[in-house]
UniProtKB/TrEMBL annotation:
The lineage of its organism: Bacteria, Pseudomonadati, Campylobacterota, Desulfurellia, Desulfurellales. The keyword DNA-binding applies. One of its GO terms (molecular function) is DNA binding. This is Transcriptional regulator, GntR family. Keywords: DNA-binding, Transcription, Transcription regulation.
Amino acid sequence: MEINLKSLREQVYEYLKEQINKQNLKGGDYIDINALSNLLKISKTPLRDALLQLEMYGFVTIKPRKGILINKLSVDDVKYFYEIIGALECAIIQQLCLYIDSQLIEKLKVYNDVMQKALDESNFDLYYKNNLNFHNSYLNLSKNHYALKIIENLRQRLYDFPKKAHYLPEWEKRSTTEHDSFIELLEKDCFKAAVFMKDVHWSFSVQEKFIMEYYFRQ
């Protein structure tokens, strides 16, 4: 691996994500740390530190004398991730209510319009990119770097590890409709918009039908 400015954690994460998305690895597989060290040309001590960070966020589990276990997402994992992301987004939005202005509202509308057009064109990569842009438009106004890091890692766990080859047009369309409702609430009552994001958009019970089909259908 070429030396670059990415942290070791990012390098290891990107490698594992690439291998999983190429179906060379899957949840439940083991990786030998010696083989990974040789492949990535990273000594075992810093590699182990990077893997410990990935383990902390639930991507892998280090098993003594067995190797590195690529974790599978469980139903409980997704449920808890949704609860955490929803609670943090709600709190951040409420803290930012004084800073919500027409410029941000317009930006959200543009991103959501692009998402809707991407669905019409079956362009999920464009949809996904603008979905992240939509949420990051207000999240990145926050100075709570701890909360933002938690959200970032949980979203990676949900969306990228592994990245699904399929998507559910009905669910994605519903998400854009929820975004429209969120924007309308944001223009009228920021606190209600924040609660909507937690109790609807990031609610496991509200989204359960789609979650089960997207993550766990055989």
